[in-house]
């Protein structure tokens, strides 16, 4: 099968074929690689712009044609640089969106995991049993308070007398 037909029939990397697309980590890595490549190209174009500007200054009024050609090349490089800036902005936005969606997915998975754990914990709990237990606890606390009150009252024989 030719490379072109593989491309149009979805021929991709072996890692992404079995899962129906790349993982978020793979996509993030590729976006970062692309950002690095474009940053290097930016640096290259910036040095080329400086070099063409130096050539234009060197020729100045002596050789106007060479100076104009250098300025035209500089303008072309600046246009490429602007395009790369726009592309980098788009890639950065896409990378941030992918990172956020990956984070949201992980949070959602963990919330589901916690919900399952809570369900398992509450499996053995019956609301009626809990209500009865809470009533028993309240009754025992009342009894304990009555005992505490009875013990803490002064036992004064003769302090209380009836006229």
Describe the structure.
- There is one protein chain.
- It is rod-shaped, with a radius of gyration of 39 Å.
- With 163 residues, the protein is an all-alpha fold.
- It has helices at 3-8, 14-17, 24-59, 64-122, 127-152.
- It has a domain at 24-111: Helix Hairpins (Orthogonal Bundle), CATH 1.10.287.1060.
Helix fraction, binned, reads over 70%
CATH architecture of the domain at 24-111: Orthogonal Bundle
Q: Give the overall shape, derived from the CA principal axes.
A: rod-shaped
Mean pLDDT metric: 85
Q: Given the helix and strand composition, which structural class is it?
A: mainly alpha
Helices and strands, in order, run as: HHHHH
Low-confidence runs of at least 5 consecutive residues: 3-16
Give the CATH class of the domain at 24-111.
Mainly Alpha
Share of residues in strands: under 5%
CATH superfamily of the domain at 24-111: ESAT-6-like
Count of DSSP strands: 0
Determine the CATH topology of the domain at 24-111. Helix Hairpins
Largest sheet: none
How far apart are the first and last residues' alpha carbons, in Å?
Answer: 118 Å
Number of helices: 5
Query: What's the gyration radius in Å?
Result: 39 Å
């Amino acid at each position: 099968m030719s490379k072109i037909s593989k491309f149009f029939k979805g021929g991709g990397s072996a890692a992404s074929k079995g899962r129906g697309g790349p993982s978020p980590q793979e996509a993030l890595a590729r976006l970062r690689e692309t950002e690095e490549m474009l940053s290097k190209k930016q640096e290259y174009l910036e040095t080329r712009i400086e070099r063409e500007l130096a050539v234009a200054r060197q020729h100045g009024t002596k050789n106007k044609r060479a100076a104009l050609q250098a300025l035209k090349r500089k303008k072309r490089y600046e246009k490429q640089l602007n395009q790369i800036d726009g592309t980098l902005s788009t890639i950065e936005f896409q990378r941030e969106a992918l990172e956020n969606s990956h984070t949201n997915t992980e949070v959602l998975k963990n919330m589901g995991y916690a919900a399952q754990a809570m369900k398992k914990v509450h499996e053995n709990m019956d609301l009626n049993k809990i209500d009865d237990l809470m009533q028993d606890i309240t009754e025992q606390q009342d009894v304990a308070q009555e005992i505490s009150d009875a013990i803490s009252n002064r036992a004064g024989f003769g302090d209380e007398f009836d006229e």
